[in-house]
Structure formats: C-alpha cells, structure tokens
Amino acid sequence: YRVPGELQEMKKRDPIPNYAETLRTRYNYTDADLEEVEKKVAATIEEAVAYAMSSPDPEPDEYLQYVYAK
What angle do CA 17, 42, 9 make, to 5 degrees? Predict the structure, then answer.
C-alpha cells in the first residue's frame, strides 16, 4: 500500500534521471551524448549477462563461498 502521490515523489528522487540532468547542466552533455552512454551501458550489461549465462554452475561445495565474510 502506498499513500497517493508517494510514487511520484519517489520518481523525483530517482538518481539516474537526476544524474542525467546533472550531466546536461554541469558538463554540457547533449541528448545524443546521453544516448551514447546508454548504448554503452546496455552493451556492457549484455556482455556481462552473456558471460554469466555461458559460465558453468559452481560446484555444490562452492555455492556459499563468497556469501559470508571469513
């Protein structure tokens, strides 16, 4: 359950659009510049997903290896 208007208030504080606006105002990024960044980010994510999907599953005794600090 959310109070009416809460979602709109949260969207105003979304860091990604806010950072894009910072890039526009402080660093003179254009919409084309931001589209280029978005394309690079999407490509990086696609590469990471492809790598993860093609990697073998860990052995059962390795599942919790990096879950807890030693």
Answer: 20
Q: Is the dihedral of CA 11, 17, 21, 23 positive or negative?
A: positive
pTM as predicted: 0.67
How far apart (Å, rounded) are the C-alpha atoms in residues 41 and 45?
6
Cα 67 to Cα 70: distance, rounded to the nearest angstrom: 10
Instruction: Write the pLDDT tens digit of every residue in 32-59.
Output: 999 999 999 999 999 999 999 999 998 9
Q: Angle of helix 31-54 relative to helix 15-27, nearest 10 degrees?
A: 140
